[in-house]
């Protein structure tokens, strides 16, 4: 039976995970505009391991803290059917905690896949030997993959970078992950040391696909449109062939979720989208969702003339009515 990565018509268009941005509301919007697959924000395997004993289902069947308090990890784990197919991304460094988290997620949330973060360059993540730091420890990375594979029937993918400090490290790292059992890999075309500086390099991503033709390989980094994504993965429309299996869009989708469809929105359509996104944020997170929506609003406003004059108002909004009044004269 084909797993979720194998069922798509290529090229696969993926919404790359971005901490603090790719929440349920934003994922739903991107799905509506044509993203084939969306991935959650990175979620701590350690947090699930330690907190799950304090989680219960409420009368609606939703998971919540026994004390009824807001739990940040549970908030990150929330998703709805509109987002499917959806993959939950985990980060950490302890195989036994990944094993527990994979088992718990599979049995209780039933997403469409699990992704392991081996590419986040954030200082607080890497400083604990999580995220991109795992590139330095191939044996541990393989143990983590195997721990997840042994505790789920879902497809397992890894999102990583070209290397820690050398761009060809991925050529040795990927076969180790494949041997451990990954079903797909998403590769950002920069090393950890590069961060997000300079142009993303894809040459070694192509080499991975040549080296491992049966592996689903998704390229990431610097994609600003579907057309550009198709060009980067060397997709040929006439033959329906591509060197890579798809591309992931991250930062370029922020404030422009229609990027997956190549649509051109009028100002009125953009206003409607802003309000729809705001309502979804409120529905999924309540008043806190509106506070978090401010950063999305600032990006959306960049598409309007004289947007700078509205920034001070945008960072102070607390409800949907204020958003409606703010964008009405634009």
Write the layout of secondary structure elements.
Layout: E1 12-15, H1 24-32, E2 37-39, E3 43-44, H2 45-51, E4 55-57, E5 63-65, H3 72-77, E6 86-91, H4 95-108, E7 113-118, H5 123-126, H6 138-149, E8 156-161, H7 170-180, E9 184-188, H8 203-211, E10 216-220, H9 226-232, E11 246-249, H10 267-285, H11 287-301, H12 311-314, H13 320-327
Parallel strand pairs: 1-2, 1-11, 2-6, 3-6, 6-7, 7-8, 8-9, 9-10, 10-11
Antiparallel strand pairs: 4-5
Descriptive labels:
14% strand; 13 helices; eight-stranded parallel β-barrel; Non-ribosomal Peptide Synthetase Peptidyl Carrier Protein, Chain A; 330 residues; globular; 2 domains; two-stranded antiparallel ribbon; TIM Barrel; alpha/beta
């Amino acid at each position: 039976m084909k797993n979720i990565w194998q069922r798509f018509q290529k090229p696969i268009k993926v919404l790359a995970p971005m901490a603090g941005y790719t929440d349920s509301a934003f994922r739903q919007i991107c799905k509506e505009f044509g993203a084939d697959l969306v991935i959650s924000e990175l979620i701590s395997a350690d947090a699930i391991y330690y907190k799950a004993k304090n989680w219960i289902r409420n009368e609606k069947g939703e998971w919540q803290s026994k004390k009824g308090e807001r739990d940040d990890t549970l908030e990150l784990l929330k998703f709805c059917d509109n987002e499917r197919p959806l993959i939950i991304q985990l980060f950490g460094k302890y195989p036994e905690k990944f094993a527990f988290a994979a088992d718990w997620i599979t049995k209780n949330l039933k997403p469409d896949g699990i992704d392991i973060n081996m590419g986040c360059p954030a200082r607080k993540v890497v400083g604990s030997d999580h995220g991109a730091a795992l590139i330095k420890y191939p044996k541990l990375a393989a143990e983590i993959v195997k721990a997840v594979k042994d505790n789920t029937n879902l497809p397992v993918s890894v999102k990583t970078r070209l290397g820690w400090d050398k761009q060809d490290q991925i050529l040795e790292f990927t076969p180790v992950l494949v041997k451990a059992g990954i079903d797909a890999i998403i590769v950002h075309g920069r090393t950890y040391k590069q961060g997000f500086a300079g142009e993303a390099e894809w040459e070694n991503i192509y080499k991975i696909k040549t080296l491992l033709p049966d592996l689903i390989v998704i390229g990431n980094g610097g994609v600003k449109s579907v057309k550009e994504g198709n060009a980067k993965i060397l997709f040929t429309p006439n033959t329906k062939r591509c060197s890579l299996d798809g591309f992931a869009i991250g930062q370029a989708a922020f404030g422009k979720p229609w990027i997956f469809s190549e649509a051109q929105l009028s100002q009125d359509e953009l206003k409607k989208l802003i309000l729809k996104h705001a309502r979804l944020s409120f529905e999924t997170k309540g008043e806190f969702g509106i506070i978090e929506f401010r950063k999305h609003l600032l990006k959306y406003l960049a598409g309007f003339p004289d947007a700078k004059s509205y920034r001070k108002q945008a960072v102070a909004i607390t409800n949907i009515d204020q958003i409606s009044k703010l964008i009405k004269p634009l």
